[in-house]
Amino acid sequence: MKDLLSHLRAMTSASTDEELWAIHVERMAEYGFDRLLYGFTRYHTATSLGDPQDWLLLTTHSREYMEIYIRDNHYFHGPMMRWAIENSGACSWRWMEEMTRSDMLTESEKKVVAFNRSMGVRAGYTVSFKSVSNRNKGAIALTAKIGMTQDQVEEVWAEHGEEILVLNNVLHLKLLTLPYSGSRALTKRQREVLQWVGDGKTTQDIAVLLDLTSATVEKHLRLARDALDVETTAQAVLKAAFYNQMFVLDV
Questions:
Q1: Which among 49, 63, 125, 200 has most CB atoms closer than 10 A?
Q2: Intervals of the chain under pLDDT 50
């Protein structure tokens, strides 16, 4: 296993979310966690985590697992999700076992537990990241390798828990600084016109600056709004900023 300082240097030097995720996945597997599920939303409310297309979602779970997990809304009804929304820090899945034994889970939560067990998701830890806004929520589920018991996971955590927690927090904080490369990604020209709008320029100003017609500028703004699934250009500027797609040096 690479020494901690070298690993942290590699993480903090990553230039894309794919590169960072690959580094993190490899390290977590060395601790025994080979199936990870990281999620972050800026659109959390009391009744929703927002549109899944707006999440930053990274996972090493199978496509089969994720399709059912998203389709059946397991992401919202899982008992560890309930814990993550209400808390920050790390939580052993033993808490979920205790809630199950005490019959403290809702019917929806019981269905999520049954689904996870059927897919070999039985032992692990959940890390919930501290939020700076009541609309933001980020967490990662660390699932232990098939065959590992929760007792074995606790042994790993007793020895390496602090560094695992630090590494996952570094992952989260670094991801928040990297340009988004998912389904909401903008083209270079779309970013460019939004950046000028963010600088307070009018459509006519942008047309002169980019040597385009006003109609072409309007077209790029419309395509940017469509890509970001918003109604107004002001909303597009805000969402593009959320996704770190504004004023980036290299995407």
A1: 125
A2: 251
